[in-house]
Design goal:
Helices cover 27% and strands 26% of the residues.
Amino acid sequence: MNPLRVIDLAVARGDRRVLSALNFTVEPGEVLHLVGANGAGKTSLLEVLSGLRAPAEGRVEGQPEADALHWVGHRNALNTSLSPLENLGFWCRLSGVSGRGTAGALQRVGLQRLRHRPCGKLSTGQRRRVALARLLLSPRPWWFLDEPLAGLDAAGIELVCTLLNEHAAAGGAVVVSSHQPLAAVATRREWVLGA
């Protein structure tokens, strides 16, 4: 796994440039925490780093291929008519991943007893946990997470920090945006946008 290098990067949203002249590296085993006010460009930068958006200027070296990364965005990408088990099964089929681990992933995120309930009847935090369970279904070295703590209670935040620590300890890398602190993440480095 190669480092991800950002070289003289500029990011635009529409015709407005939101970030300019960014230079940094994300190493294997590291968690880069993007911090900044609303509108500072955290989501747009994550989209560029993960290949979902083209940069306005500059380049990203070592950008992972789609099958080497997990993306969890603001929206949970869940069909609210389907249960957590059905949503994860659909994601597995779409991604070419075995669905054998879905029950275990739901147990790990604390949703085993709700596995058959339609996602539309789950709380905001429970839906977020379903989305995060995808991280456990296929080992991918790069995680790009946009506000993964949104809607989570204290136990959910602790779970996310544990998952980040485990992923980094196994040599994976994470780029995560969050307004909330990630003090429990051992290999965290903060990058403040708009400062």
